[in-house]
From TrEMBL:
Gene3D superfamilies (alphabetical): 3.30.70.100
SMART domains linked to this entry: Dabb
Keywords for the protein's UniProt record, in alphabetical order: Signal
Top-rank taxon: Bacteria
Domain Stress-response A/B barrel stretches: 36-132
Pfam family, one: Dabb
Signal peptide range in chain numbering: 1-27
Protein's name in the database: DabB protein
Lineage: Bacteria, Pseudomonadati, Bacteroidota, Cytophagia, Cytophagales
Length: 135
């Protein structure tokens, strides 16, 4: 009985150590599936208008129906610490991930994207786009 108990305890300790090691070792980020990042920042014509901000957000949500977009995140300015390197002058952002340049190009001409621009462009004063490839 003592021998069985020792084997059980030894195997439990080994199992626990393996679990801790697997939790402590960060996984490498997955590459290749969505290497193109498309980040867009919108400055509203009426920055204090929650209705205008919400209308742009609702318009951006319609873009989720575009198959070329593998992931879409929509955000507003966070109340983080004010620092010289932080630009919080914008109102709404969208962060998209595409499999390739062709997917991003097809998104630009997609009817849903064109409808979003038609329906919401009167709400923004300025748009800046940052496109990047995963390395």
């Amino acid at each position: 009985m003592n021998n069985t108990r020792r084997k059980f305890i030894a195997s439990s300790v080994t199992l626990a150590a393996g679990a801790v090691a697997s939790v402590a070792a960060p996984a490498a980020p997955a590459k290749g599936k969505t290497p193109l990042v498309h980040h867009v920042f919108f400055w509203l014509k009426n920055p204090g208008s929650v209705a205008d901000r919400d209308r742009i957000i609702e318009g951006l949500k319609t873009l989720r129906k575009i198959e070329a977009i593998k992931e879409l995140r929509i955000g507003v300015v966070a109340s983080t610490e004010k620092r010289d390197v932080v630009d919080n002058s914008w109102g709404v952002s969208e962060l998209m991930f595409f499999e390739d340049l062709a997917g991003q190009a097809s998104y630009q001409d997609h009817p849903i994207h064109q409808k979003f621009i038609k329906d919401c462009s009167h709400l923004w004063d300025k748009v800046i786009v940052y496109d990047a490839m995963d390395v």
